[in-house]
Amino acid sequence: MRIAKVLAMTCSVALTACVGAAAPSNTQTVAFLRGCWVQKESPGGRVEAFLRLLPAGTEVGAAFRGDVVDVRHGEWRSTHRLTFGADGAYMSLHRNPLPTEIGEGVLNRIAEPPQSAVLKPVEHRSTWKFPPIDASEGWIVADGTHDTLRIYLLKASATEGEVIFDGERDGCD
Fold first, then answer.
1. Quick one: CA dihedral 96, 136, 166, 56, positive or negative?
2. Shortest CA distance to 164 belongs to which of 43, 82, 99?
3. Model confidence over 16-42: pLDDT tens digits?
4. Is 76 exposed, middle or buried (0-12, 13-18, 19+ CB in 10 A)?
5. Cα 39-96-41 angle, rounded to 5 deg
6. Taking the chain, what is the end-to-end CA distance rounded to the nearest angstrom?
7. 88: left (phi over 0), alpha (psi -120 to 50) or beta
């Protein structure tokens, strides 16, 4: 009888713990992304690219949108168009966007990279899963502090891939 009571109590506690567990979040903090950024070849060096992630649309706080503009070859050329939901629930990425391009590109949802990924500790990090491209999957990672921002792809092998932007705050906001 005593064993039955202990077993019943253990099951009751276990069920309560499972029911009370928080569900995975559908949002993440992305406020650190907002602002104007500049990428330089070295600290204090020549400017390579600009990124202005500012509120988009008429809805307050709906999204931050901006283009990575490469200025290295004497021309201003948009290499990526990024849109981040203000709640961090989604982001979209266009490569080599046309100036008149509208609509969303690849829509990506929140997802944690695999535990095998060795990521440096940072003040802020937001991650999104992107669908298979060329038969591989991966993640888009945005790391930052108040003064720095790095957006890059993390391959399915958990190694760093293409760097989309790596810069410092420019102060237009």
1. positive
2. 82
3. 333 444 445 677 889 999 999 999 999
4. exposed
5. 20
6. 69
7. left
